[in-house]
Amino acid sequence: MNFHVLTLFPEMIQQGLGTSITGRAMDKGLISLNAVNIRDFSADKHNRVDDYPYGGGAGMVIQAEPVFKAFGYLANHIKMTKEASVSYEKPRVIYVTPQGSIFNQGMAKEFAKEDDLIFLCGHYEGIDERVLEMVVTDYISIGDYVLTGGELPAMVMIDAISRLIPGVLNNDVSSEFESLQDNLLEYPQYTRPEVFMGKKVPEVLLTGHHANIETWRREQSVLRTYERRPDLLENAELTENEREYLTRLIFQKNYNVY
Ligand code: ADE
């Protein structure tokens, strides 16, 4: 996977993703990161890329031209690297904005299938609408709050997508069975010691009985999701037994029987 980021702060992207698991994935050649500075495409002698909004109002707007030129440079660069390939498709261009669809694990999985992804990061009051209409394929937000710029959201998405790429996590199984897989939260985890300040590890985990442990973990996932994120349960795939377990939980809560 090749990530490309159009930004006014390329060093923020490189530093943010250059360490830990994503940094290691880059060293191993499993992902690449190419941060392009929009300012390098300014036609202004002071390298300015923003101007006052037409119609007035607070703040500044990033101009269409430097964004369009930076995008053109990047699109060309990506195409050059693909020339030999028969199935070249134009890469998706994700504009990170609080006005977009809210990012989730399902989207991360979809994006992880692409060869190249371009992220466009805004600042100030946004980017001239005309260039967005020309280049953007996806408008994505990371939540209903407003940040100072698009770099952190782009890094959040790149991190979530990267860990789904085979080989990025040491243990491929752990990206399969984890929080939000099947719309269930992950079950609680424990490690040594067996007793910590009087609190014991649940007995079933010490038995070595794999089937019972699996059942217990699924039930804990259902319980946790019911308590913390009941909205997810609507789309969760549950077995007959798990549905019964959930019905019991709801009954207990409604009638205060424990
Ligand atoms: N830019 C500023 N706030 C944002 C958010 N919540 N999501 C994506 N991009 C943003």
Provide keyphrases for this structure.
258 residues; alpha/beta; Alpha/beta knot; Trp Operon Repressor, Chain A; two-stranded antiparallel ribbon; 9 helices; binds adenine
Kindly describe this structure.
- With 258 residues, the chain is α/β, with parallel strands linked by helices.
- The chain has 2 domains: 2-170, Alpha/beta knot (3-Layer(aba) Sandwich), CATH 3.40.1280.10; 195-255, Trp Operon Repressor, Chain A (Orthogonal Bundle).
- The chain contains 9 helices and 9 strands.
- The protein has helices at residues 10-17, 20-27, 64-82, 105-111, 129-135, 151-162, 173-176, 210-228, 240-255; strands spanning 2-7, 32-37, 50-51, 61-62, 92-102, 116-121, 138-141, 195-196, 199-200.
- The strands form 3 sheets. Strands 2-1-6-5-7 form a 5-stranded parallel sheet, sandwiched between helices. Strands 3-4 form a two-stranded antiparallel ribbon.
- The model has no long low-confidence stretch (mean pLDDT 94).
- Adenine is lined by residues 96-98, 141-143, 145-147, 150, 153.
Short overview:
The chain is of the alpha/beta class and 258 residues long.
Widest sheet: strand ordering: 2-1-6-5-7
Distance between the termini: 50 Å
Which percent range fits the helix content? 25-40%
Principal-axes geometry comes out as elongated
The structure class reads alpha/beta
The unique ligands bound to this protein are: adenine
Question: Beta-strand percentage?
Answer: 15-25%
| Tally of individual helices | 9
**Element order, helices and strands?**
EHHEEEHEHEHEHHEEHH
**CATH-wise, what's the superfamily of the largest domain?**
SPOUT methyltransferase, trefoil knot domain
- Which regions contain 5 or more consecutive residues with pLDDT less than 50? none
Main sheet, how many strands, which sense, barrel?
5 strands, parallel
Q: From the alpha-carbon coordinates, what is the Rg to the nearest angstrom?
A: 23 Å
Q: What's the total number of strands?
A: 9
User: Would you tell me which CATH topology of the largest domain applies?
Assistant: Alpha/beta knot
Average residue pLDDT: 94
CATH class of the largest domain: Alpha Beta
